[in-house]
Each structure stands twice: as structure tokens, then as C-alpha cells.
Specification:
This protein has 469 residues and is an alpha/beta fold. Helices cover 40% and strands 13% of the residues. The protein has two domains: 245 residues, Type I PLP-dependent aspartate aminotransferase-like (Major domain) (Aspartate Aminotransferase, domain 2, 3-Layer(aba) Sandwich), CATH 3.40.640; 118 residues, Alpha-Beta Complex (Aspartate Aminotransferase, domain 1), CATH 3.90.1150. The radius of gyration is 23 Å and the shape is globular. Bound molecules: pyridoxal-5'-phosphate (PLP). Pyridoxal-5'-phosphate binds next to helix 5. The site of pyridoxal-5'-phosphate has 14 residues, from helix 5.
Length: 469
């Protein structure tokens, strides 16, 4: 734990630590140099293609170009549309292009909003369905039914919004179980959620069945395409078998798809799409009686930077369908090699039938030895320079393949290192692994200890200035 917390402050000795704004301004050149050094050091691992997820494009020319576009409007507050009408163009066209990609029909009412990321899209969807049910059906004790693999932002948002979350177990193939979800629905259920694809295992839930289930109860179905929304359509176009999950499915009433993931935009945007403007209207907030003026706001944010929507729009139109398809082809080829590699290694097995994200766990072992500890495998992978995502319930790891991982030789090298890592876990059966399963961290402060108090201490540490010696 101490090592982990120390790791949060690598600059405490070679960079000035500020605890107050100093009188003398520092030179811009000096500060830029310091920030550049940090960025270069921190980007090195991702640039080497050894990180799962996190960096989606990896192309620094692309990033530099987007940063230039961002710079044109970085300072602009697009709440002020009279000053920045370009924001309306950028936002509306981002939404229109995404609706088209996901087979919605703007002519039939499909519409959407831009949010700051996947979590905000999911939490906003929760809010929308809560407001819809409160108005139309007078639901005062709302609940949502979600598979256990649905993104945890839903649990966070439901906690904030006073919505009960009913977690349904999975089918044996690790996808959502419509029957288990059906059993949890009651008159206070405001919506169902499914994923395409889910974060833990990269699997696409049976959205067609969930759509029918939602329809039969007269409620909405949100599909979380935050991760897969900008990748699965291209994979399908390339001829891979992708079950239907978007607006072609009857019963799908909203979809989230993150531009800042496989849309290859800068961090800070996602789309939330609705099947109708009536549904979208439930997320709007208006208040006419404030001394500050008539207040109208589409979502959580107040002021927003115009740089984000301009650069997201630029990412989409400069990548183009050809660029997205080419990237998807490389990603699928790399994921295929990783999956075949996992299949060929004794002691581990792939979870479900994934596309671009390969999750794997210890294979059952009926001998006296028992299954290996997958976190020991992660320890060895970390030592070899890899950063996978570790999971729990069941203990597993996943490799979410992105463009930096598609470079020549990376998949082969990973499979070699994975084989050695599994051997390491076999040789060290019974040892305590150093890594565990904390979301958002590659190495973690010990799986067994990962309980609330510890997690709160980590959050405190993440918000603290580097401690004095
Ligand atoms: C399926 C899924 N939904 C939602 C999110 C949350 O997205 P964000 O981190 O942009 O808030 C993620 C993040 O990885 C995800 O994979």
C-alpha cells in the first residue's frame, strides 16, 4: 500500500511542489518544458503498445492536429451560442453522424446530446428515465434492472439519483440473462440496461431479447455502447459476425457511444442518443425564476469548452469511414492473435466469445494443484512491462485492443510474455499476488485488501499534494 501511494507522487523530488500561488510568475517556457517532460515520460508505455484500452488512437500527429483545432475554441464557453454558433454545427453534426452510424433515423426523431464522457452519458440516461417515469407513471421509488457486467457508472449515478439498482446474474456464456432480468422487473422499473460491448469481458448482451423484454413492459432499453459504439459498426461492415445491438433493434430507446474512445477524439466527449425528442426532453432543465436570468440547460454541465466539440467533430471528419474501418481491421486482427494465443496456453481460458476485447481467467484444474492465481499472471505481465486491466467476480484480466497495440509484433510478443507469465503463476502457486482488481489501475494495492476503507484512502491520496519529506 505504501509503495502504491508513493507511486502517486513521482515528481515530489524533481519538480517544485506548490501549496500556494507564488508571487513571482514562472516563465512559460520553463513550465512548458516541465509539462512536456512529464507527458513524454508518461506516454512512453502507451506508445510502446503495451497498454490495454486507455489510449485509443495513439497517433501523435492526430493528437497534435486535434489540439490545434481545440486551441481555436479552448477558451470559448459554448453556453453562449450567440457568440459561438459553430458549436451548434459541431454538436449537431457529431450527433447526426453517430445516429447514422448506429442506424438511427433522424427523420423519425432519433436525436441526442454531447456529454463529457461515458459515465455522464449513462448517468444522464438514468436521470432521463427517472424523470420520464416520474412524470408519466408517477413512479416515486424507481429502480433499474441491469446485468452485473453493466458499467459501474450506473451504480454511481443511481446512488446520486436515488434509484435502486437491481443486478441480474449472467448466462453461462457471460452475457446478460434476459430471464434473470425479467424476474427483477416490477411496476417501479424505469428502464433496462444492456451493453455493446461491456467493459469487463467485451461481450455484447442479447439486445434483441432485451428489447422485446423492455417493450413487453412498456419501458425503455438503454444500450451502453460507450466502448463499442464507435468500433462494432466498422467490425460488422468488415464482415465479422456482430449481433444486432443498435437502433435497428426494436425496443432500443437510447444508446451511449463514446467519441473519446474509438471515435479517436480527445478526452472529454461522448454521445447520448435517443429514439425520440420526447424522451430527450426529460433530461432538459429549465428554470424561469432565477434573478440571474431564464435558465435553460440540456444536462449536467454548465459552461463547456468549445474546443471539445470542435476537435471531436474534426476527429470524425478527418478519420472518415475509411480510416475507422482500417483501424477496426487492424484491431480485429490483433485481437484475433491474442485470443488464439490465450486459447493455446494451458491454464487459462477466454471468457465468452469476444470481438475486440479479450478477457481471460484461470482454467478449471481438477488436479491436486488447482487453478492458477490469475493475479500472479498479472504480476509477471506487469514486470514484463504490460498494463492489462484486472477484473474480479470472477478474477480475470482483459486486454482491450486499441490502435497502439496493432503495431507490428506486439500481439506475438504479448502471447510469448503471457505464456511465461502463466508458467510463473504455476511455479508460484500459493504465493500472494501483488496485483489485484482495482478499476482504472494497472497495478493495485493488493486484491485481498481492496475494501472500502482502503479505496477511500486511495481516493484521498489521489487528491493530496505530494507529502513533504
Ligand atoms: C462499457 C463502458 N461504459 C461506460 C464507460 C465509462 O466511460 P468513461 O470512462 O468515459 O466515463 C466505460 C469505460 O471504459 C465502458 O467501457
Amino acid at each position: 500500500m505504501t509503495d502504491f501511494v508513493d507511486g502517486l507522487y513521482p515528481y515530489r523530488h524533481d519538480s517544485r511542489t506548490y501549496r500556494a500561488i507564488e508571487d513571482a510568475p514562472r516563465s512559460r517556457a520553463e513550465v512548458l518544458d516541465e509539462v512536456r517532460r512529464m507527458a513524454t515520460a508518461e506516454d512512453a508505455k502507451g506508445a510502446a503498445g503495451r497498454v490495454s484500452g486507455s489510449l485509443y488512437s495513439g497517433d501523435h500527429e492526430h493528437y497534435a492536429y486535434l489540439a490545434e483545432v481545440f486551441g481555436q475554441f479552448a477558451h470559448a464557453n459554448i453556453l453562449q451560442r450567440d457568440m459561438y454558433p459553430s458549436a451548434t454545427k459541431f454538436e449537431a453534426e457529431i450527433i447526426a453522424m453517430t445516429i447514422d452510424l448506429l442506424h438511427g433515423d433522424s427523420g423519425q426523431g432519433a436525436c441526442g446530446v454531447i456529454t463529457s464522457g461515458g459515465s455522464e452519458s449513462l448517468i444522464t440516461a438514468l436521470y432521463t428515465y427517472r424523470e420520464q417515469a416520474a412524470g408519466g407513471r408517477a413512479v416515486t421509488r424507481p429502480n433499474v434492472v441491469i446485468p452485473v457486467t453493466a458499467h459501474v457508472a450506473l451504480d454511481k449515478g443511481a446512488h446520486w439519483l436515488g434509484i435502486e439498482v437491481r443486478h441480474a446474474p449472467l448466462q453461462p456464456d457471460y452475457r446478460a440473462d434476459p430471464a434473470a432480468m425479467a424476474a427483477l422487473i416490477d411496476e417501479n422499473t424505469i428502464a433496462l440496461f444492456g451493453s455493446a460491448a461491456n467493459y469487463p469481458h467485451g461481450l455484447i448482451d442479447p439486445i434483441e431479447e432485451l428489447g422485446e423484454l423492455a417493450r413487453s413492459h412498456g419501458i425503455g432499453l438503454h444500450v451502453d455502447g460507450c466502448l463499442g459504439g464507435f468500433l462494432l459498426p466498422w467490425i460488422e461492415q468488415l464482415g465479422y459476425d456482430v449481433p444486432r445491438w443498435d437502433f435497428r433493434v426494436r425496443g432500443v430507446t437510447s444508446i451511449s457511444a463514446d467519441t473519446h474512445k474509438y471515435g479517436y477524439a480527445l478526452k472529454g466527449t461522448s454521445t447520448l442518443l435517443y429514439s425520440s425528442p420526447e424522451l430527450r426532453r426529460h433530461q432538459y432543465f429549465t428554470y424561469p425564476n432565477w434573478p440571474g436570468g431564464l435558465y435553460l440547460s440540456p444536462g449536467f454541465a454548465g459552461s463547456r469548452s468549445g474546443g471539445l466539440v470542435a476537435s471531436t467533430w474534426a476527429a470524425m471528419v478527418t478519420t472518415g469511414a475509411d480510416g475507422y474501418r482500417a483501424a477496426a481491421a487492424d484491431i480485429m486482427s490483433t485481437a484475433g492473435k491474442i485470443r488464439a494465443g490465450v486459447d493455446a496456453i494451458d491454464g487459462i481460458e477466454v471468457i465468452g466469445d469476444p470481438t475486440f476485447l479479450v478477457a481471460f481467467q484461470a482454467a478449471p484444474d481438477t488436479s491436486d494443484d488447482g487453478p492458477i492465481d490469475i493475479y500472479l499472471v498479472n504480476d509477471a505481465l506487469i514486470a514484463a512491462g504490460w498494463r492489462l486491466n484486472s477484473l474480479q467476480l470472477p478474477a480475470a484480466l482483459h486486454f482491450c485492443v486499441t490502435r497502439p497495440n496493432t503495431a507490428e509484433g506486439i500481439a506475438e510478443r504479448f502471447v510469448d510474455d503471457l505464456r511465461s507469465a502463466v508458467d510463473y503463476a504455476k511455479r508460484n502457486r500459493g504465493a500472494t499476488a501483488e496485483s489485484g482488481a482495482m478499476y482504472g489501475f494497472g497495478g493495485t494495492p493488493g486484491g485481498d485488501e481492496a475494501i472500502n476503507g482502503l479505496m477511500v484512502a486511495v481516493l484521498d491520496a489521489m487528491h493530496a499534494v505530494a507529502p513533504e519529506d
